[in-house]
Amino acid sequence: MCIITLYRSPSCNFNRFLEIIDSALQSVCSPSLGIIIPRDISINYLETNEQRKQLDNLLLLYNLISIVDFPTRLTVTSATAIDKVFIDVSWFHDCVVSPFPNGLSDHDTQILTFSARYPKQPICIKTVRKVDQQKISDFLLHLSNESWSTVFNTEDVNLMLNSFLDTYLKIFNTSFPLTKVINQNKGNLWITPGILTSCKRKRDCF
Known about the structure:
The protein is α+β, with helices and mostly antiparallel strands. The chain has 6 helices and 10 strands; from the N terminus they run βαβαβββββββαααβα. The protein folds into 2 domains: 2-116, Deoxyribonuclease I, Chain A; 123-181, no CATH class.
């Protein structure tokens, strides 16, 4: 999950504001990452206006929608919804956002609760040979019991080599058969490549 906080002052160049948001989202957007944007954007979402349309159209490109539909800034003479929460609808569901007056500002706090939809990890099937001491002993035993008669029954070097390889590989495949192993990531989505690198370095040190 990625939370991007931002603030737009009322006097900010709106086109430049859109460019900055677009650039930030491009740098972090990923199918495996849910995005939440909570912040004061100085656009009243209780009214329909051109700036709201432009911002909504941009955020929809990244599956982001607004879920705050109540006033977030209250004064004696006005009520506006300029503090917004935008969420990635492909990641989060059962979202509930509610106001929480904090008494410290004319901007109310919003409390967001949600359920996250984590993408399923692909199932990876590997073909491996299991090698342990018992199988190695079995392999050596079969080699020692082999007469290799087919190898020495000819004087043709090429035929001898082919016969040797055929016998050897039969014993090898019998002692170390190929087996399929299902490797499925069961979670730990919080483990980043940086953490994995640090763990590897720690193992190398010790």
